[in-house]
Design goal:
homodimer, 357 residues, alpha/beta, Isopropylmalate Dehydrogenase, 2 domains, 10-stranded mixed β-sheet, 12 helices, 14 strands, 22% strand, globular, binds 3-isopropylmalic acid
């Protein structure tokens, strides 16, 4: 099988960690009878510097015509003073809209080797394995009207609209129920139905959908309580499904439970058969860019997610994930996850350790 | 001084914990030359049962004509199937709107006696002392348009509007800057300005206001990052100011950091001279209602907040807070905060211990 993969290295540590992920993909390809045609394109701050836009039209077109997109990270202080429609983050929003990536899967799994990296007590986080399914192309991120409006008295008012239609809720709901089926068959839908109309519709549709998935244990939770419960007793969660904004907040909280966001991949999926985007949860870390200090493992695990969810090559995905486990078991660590008794490696050396494993 | 206090005991454990708070207020009154005229009114599920509405007009009128409102907790499964405009929570939203309570102060302070109750490691939470200043009468809670609308194809769409005007931001901003001045003079404003127009206006106004408070160290943080940072390194925060929805989520997360939400009070304030509402952060805990098991300390500390922020009687507030400290120091605990080596008390006995202290 031959796959066309668009590589968006982005900014900061992006290029270094991307290089490791690509070398890993190349190394495992023959084993699984795969070939990859990689094509690099510009996105984020570096794209703005080169073309005046964070997501050039050619980049989006290339992504649309590929089988999957592997993205590293975008952003950096350098571009923070740009008007918001030109900032690096717009590349993410543009990709989500342009590729119809309505489903964002963010696993937050405690790796036994890194359990001490968490700020939570061992007994609280041991065994935590949460998948946040976040709606990614609707809600307040894209709702209209939006803007800053001036009333007759010259007073300005900032406005955004949080909205979901029934089909939008059903679509992400199905992804969540199907995901739960492949895991512990437990789904918690998070909303703010005690205050928001949009959440009432959300809850009604998810409940209705639940009838089609009687094998999945469905519960509902308010978003404020969910933020508490993630801290209080995170083991209660298997799959969480929620809207764009709540998912942004809760998936970051869930990620931080692990204490090692340098380890966490994510997948953003559209309609079946369309290309997804696979990227680490962490940012572009401009402070350590180019210093061979970055942790490439989230990028490598994002490549594994690409194989599993984007290309349906789960054997190859398993193989990469096992290599990561092996390297961690052998005590090799980058600086961000370093612990006493372990061996500290740079980004490149970590890549070599992965290839050896 | 004579103060007219409206008591809203609400539902569940409300009456038991309110009784303790009232007895404490009565006990300290002579010491500070205060007299309290308490008047009880219905709110929440019990008000619905008695009058058909969770916030009867007489209750709101009584609150409006008093010097302060002491509220316990509302809600319970019994009323969960009511249409949303009749549910107990509407009493809270109605009080906030009816009394113009635009500023919600939620302290989350680690008490050294209870540090082990936290799910976070001791070294991470030791000394944490955060005040969340949440805007309470604007944002997506009250923004229009809202509702569930059906389009020409019969597809329904749930809609809420997140909006802030300049004066709304300035008003809560001032409360936050003033609060920071009385503490560590460090203020973190939380928004989602990389995506939301309403947050861009928010950030612009808070920044502008910052020029009037050059002694306060102001920073800005995105809400997803704030949810992470509360877990990663909570000691970095002094005062957090944010909108209604983000404040709902983050103040609950901050509260849960302490591990003992049975200890946390809150204050909701309107314009100076108007009555505020003072209530615990915890809920009505219907499962333990009437069993003399509830922890009355958050209610008692809410009475202290009432004295401090609502009635400007800080000496009396200090006195109550010291009594709580003494009782904890002596090893007395209710069930929710019980630890080995401590003495477990019921709600009433805890009240008596407070009176003795
Ligand atoms: C950078 C920002 C626009 C983005 C979001 O809010 O979705 C990020 O926080 C994320 O979660 O991918
Ligand atoms: C009960 C609910 C309406 C309320 C809110 O969302 O404001 C509660 O969560 C709170 O924080 O006081």
């Amino acid at each position: 099988k031959n796959y066309k993969i668009t590589l968006l290295s982005g900014d900061g540590i992006g290029p270094e960690i991307m290089q490791v992920a690509v070398s890993v993909l190349q190394a495992i390809a023959p084993k699984f009878n795969l070939t990859f045609a990689f094509e690099a394109a510009l996105a984020g701050g570096s794209a703005f510097d080169a073309t005046g836009h964070p997501l050039p039209a050619e980049t989006l077109a290339l992504c649309q015509s590929s089988d999957a997109v592997l993205l590293a990270a975008v952003g950096g202080e350098k571009w923070d003073t740009l008007p918001s429609h030109l900032r690096p983050e717009q590349a993410l929003l543009g990709l989500r809209a342009g590729l119809g990536l309505f489903a964002n899967l963010r696993p937050a799994k405690i790796l036994p080797q890194l359990i001490d990296a968490s700020t939570l007590k061992r007994e609280v986080i041991e065994g935590v394995d949460i998948l946040v399914v976040r709606e990614l192309t609707g809600g307040i991120y894209f709702g209209l009207p939006k803007g800053i409006f001036t009333d007759e008295n010259g007073v300005r008012r900032g406005v955004n609209t949080m909205a979901y239609t029934e089909p939008e809720v059903d679509r992400i709901g199905r992804v969540a129920f199907e995901s739960a089926r492949k895991r512990q068959s437990t789904l918690c839908s998070v909303d703010k139905a005690n205050v928001l109309d949009v959440s009432q519709l959300w809850r009604e549709r998810i409940t209705k959908l639940g009838a089609e998935y009687p094998d999945v244990k469905l519960s509902h939770m308010y978003v404020d309580n969910a933020a508490m419960q993630l801290l209080r007793y995170p083991k209660q969660f298997d799959v969480i499904v929620t809207g764009n904004l709540f998912g942004d907040i809760l998936s970051d909280a869930a990620a931080m439970l692990t204490g090692s966001i340098g380890m966490l991949p994510s997948a953003s999926l559209g309609e079946p058969g369309k290309p997804g985007v696979f990227e680490p949860v962490h940012g572009s870390a401009p402070d350590i860019a180019g210093k061979d200090l970055a942790n490439p493992l989230a990028q490598v695990l994002s490549a594994a997610m690409m194989l599993r969810y984007g290309l349906n090559e789960s054997a190859a995905a398993d193989y990469i994930e096992q290599a990561v486990t092996k390297v961690l078991d052998s005590g090799k660590r980058t600086g961000d996850i370093m612990a006493s008794g372990c061996e500290q490696l740079g980004c490149k050396a970590m890549g070599e350790a992965l290839l050896a494993a």
